[in-house]
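Session log. Operator J.P. requested a structure for one protein chain; no other inputs attached. Running the standard single-chain path with token output.
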Amino acid sequence: MKKLFRLLKVVLVFFAALVFLFSAYNIGLIGQEITGREAEQQALSQEEPYFLYFYSSDCVMSRLADTPLKEMQSRLKEQQVDWRWILIDVEEENEMEFSWHKQVQVTPTLFLYDEFGHIWQQYAGSMDWLMIEQEILEAYHLWSKAKKTME
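Structure written below.
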């Protein structure tokens, strides 16, 4: 009787986990990847500046930029610069067209867009991450002031 109860308990837990995973997939919490174009549309709908970062997993410069990029993102987050980062691997089949549309010719390439989808800054190839961070902070402060005056 105890074995039957344990088996029933395992089956119920398995079924509950299966229902949870199926539900999470259907509402987009797991398993569904969105393209760079879709992520950009979401960023535009929030009416805040955003970054598009194009890289290639096969590119040495992109791999070398990975650590400084993450460090810069962390420092910006500490300073409340919480704009959306959209990371796009140009080698992925569903991202190649978007990369060409944005005229990305070199990886890594970083675009900073305003809330209306206009390019503020563009950086490509070997990047000075500290200079870029300073320029982003300046843009953030200007944007914050302008946003406050419009409210």
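Operator note: Strands lie at 50-55, 84-89, 109-113, 119-124.
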